[in-house]
Amino acid sequence: MPPQLTIKEPVTLEGVNVFNGKSNKITFLPAGDDEGISFSARGHKVKATLENAIGESRRRIHCLSLCDPPPKNKTGNVVVRKIEHPLSVCYALGIDNLSIELSDGVVPRFDYGVSGMVEALGPLRVEGNAKKRYWRMNDWVAKLDTLCWNLERTDYVQAFKSDHAIVHFEVRREHKAVGEQKLSVPLIEDDYRREVMHARTPSFMSLGSRLYFGCTGYWYGMTDKNTLLIGCKSAVNYLNRSSEHYGKDEFVRHKIVDAIGAIALAGRQFNNVGFDFLLTGHAFNVHAMKKFFKDNLFCDAELPPQPCPYQDIDWNAEKPASS
Ligand SMILES: [Zn+2]
Predict the structure, then answer these.
(1) pLDDT tens, position by position, 46-56
(2) Distance, CA 40 to ligand 1 centroid (Å)?
(3) Measured in angstroms, how far is the CA atom of residue 69 from the centroid of ligand 1?
(4) Cα of 169 to ligand 1 centre, how many Å?
(5) Checking CA distances to 104, which of 27, 32, 45, 311 falls within 20 to 30 Å?
């Protein structure tokens, strides 16, 4: 087993708080073996665990947040918001232990997705003394147990046995600029860097708000570089496609970054598990991960995940039967 990773020195990045448009800061600090990832703001510290997490929607912005004490009935005392991106980056870089301080309790938004955090943290990684631990799927798990539908049976998350850790995401939107998109990305650093880390956070803009923004600049610090703008349903292209890094499927690429943020709440990387997401958002991703652990799908693993060539994947073979 390889050793756990943290970073060798603190690093601070500045971005924008999209709830108020003001600039804010995130500081990453080293943490000791087995401490895991924690966030702090205003002198209050909370561990990034599934137990403490909820999905929130505030002012048309959806995010993962951490509560202390743990939330009950999907509400709680929120300490930090928008934690999905740094968690996603830590998972991709294999960083096990990290203390993250937020200047105002909200993770900043940066230009071109999470690429700035990946570039800042990647070179600072340093080994601890304790060995890494991984999750794998229990051998007895039946295929039926691995599928978590929403109540309406329109969205699901499925965890499935796979030779390689991988995430598949499928979206369908009435907005023509998005339409149907699906993508599979192995849960491996190289693939994360190449396939998803530059994807910007999407934001849906009605025609009225677009006219408003045209006069006043973007809403709450959103810019062409930090937000993928989607206009009315009939608009064929993204409103700011000229500044895109990826092509048409930038939307689903960002959904994969967010999904990995929810997976990271498990506290370890997965070895032989793939995750399949259909149409889900933050709140349901957390709900599904909680359910998988409650159902005892996973157990300790010693082997790290193996690299996965794309051509090995037959998605039709993995699809659950439709309801
Ligand atoms: Zn996101």
Answers:
(1) 999 999 999 98
(2) 20
(3) 24
(4) 14
(5) 32
